Amino acid sequence: MQVPFRKMHGLGNDFCVLDARARALPVTPALAAAVADRHFGVGCDQFIVMEPPQPGADVFMRIRNPDGSEAGACGNATRCIASLVADEAGLDRVVVRTIAGDLPVERLSGGLWRADMGPARLGWREVPLAREMDTRHLPLALGPVSDPAACSMGNPHATFFVDDLDAIPVAEIGPKLERDPLFPDRANIGFAQVLSPERIRLVIWERGAGMTLACGSGACATIVNAARRGLAGRRARVELPGGALDMEWREDGHVLMTGPVATAFTGELDLSRFG
After folding, report:
1. SS3 of 139, please?
2. How far, in Å, CA of 159 to CA of 226, rounded?
3. Which of 121, 128, 183, 237 would bridge with 152, disulfide CB 3.0–4.6 Å?
4. For domain 2-118+260-273, which CATH number applies: 3.10.310.10, 3.20.20.140, 3.40.630.30, 2.160.10.10?
C-alpha cells in the first residue's frame, strides 16, 4: 500500500506525517514504531496521522511516539499540521484537535506560528501523580537533580531546575525518571536552567521518545513551572538544542507557544513493509 508522507520538523523535533483524511490507513502501534525507526524506517521523534476533521475543528491529529505509544499533545507537531491545513485552505487560523483537546493555531509574520496549547493542568490527579502532593515540589531526586515541579499540557511533565544544564547526565537519568513510580502514565522530564526571568535553557527527555532537539509541550510546562516557583515571569524565551520558542502563560491559564515550522522532504511509504 503506497502512501505519500511528509517529513516535517519544528526546531529539529521531527515528524513523519501521513494524511488519512481522504481514506483510512492501517496504522497500528507496531507500524508507527517501525516507520519511526531511524535505521530501518523514515525516522522521527513522533509519527503523526492527519484524520478527518470533527465539528469545531479543521483536522484531527493522531500522535504516536517511536515506541508506538499514543501521546496527547505535541506542540511542534501542532504548528506543523496547522501550517499544512492553513496553506491548503488559505486560512490564517485553524483548530487542531487531539485526544487531549482543541488547539487553535494562527499564522504570524516571518514564517512563525502561534499555538494556544490550552490551560496548564496543575492538580496532582491531572498530571497524573501516584498520590496527593503539591505539584510545585515533588519528592523526587536522582543523582544531581531533585525537587521538580509538575503539570500536564495534555501529557505529563516534570521540570527539574538546575544551576548548570551542561553538567546533567540527561541520557543516563532521563529514562529512570520517566518511569519513576510517582508517574503512573510515565512522564516527560525537563531539565531547565533559568538564565534570567525572560530566558530559560531547556533539555527534554521525552516519554517514549528519549532526548529530542525540541519539545513544545515541554517548553509550555517549563514556563508554567518556572513562573509557579517564582523563577521566571509569565513570558520567556525557552532555548532548546534545536532553537528557541517564545512562550507566554496567560492569566487565564492558557499557554501560548510561538515558533517556526519546516518540511524537510516528501516521499512515499509502502505500508505493507512495516509492522
Report:
1. coil
2. 9
3. 121
4. 3.10.310.10
Q: All 3 cell numbers of residue 21?
A: 483524511
Intrachain domains 2-118+260-273 and 121-252 with the same fold: yes
Q: Cell for 218? A: 515541554
Phi then psi for residue 250, to 5 deg, are -70, 165
Catalytic positions, written as ranges = 74, 215
CA distance 274 to 47: 13
Tell me yes or no: is domain 121-252 CATH 3.10.310.10. Answer: yes
Three-state DSSP at 127 gives coil
Place of cell 475543528: 57
What global pTM score does this model have?
0.93
Query: The C-alpha cell of 143 is what?
Result: 543523582
Handedness of CA 58, 64, 16, 8 (dihedral sign): positive
Residue 47 and residue 32 in contact, taking contact as beta carbons nearer than 8 Å: yes
**AA identity, residue 99:** I
Render pLDDT for 221-260 as a digit per residue (tens, 0 to 9): 999 999 999 999 999 999 999 999 999 999 999 999 999 9
Length of the chain equals 275
What residues does each domain of the chain span?
2-118+260-273, 121-252
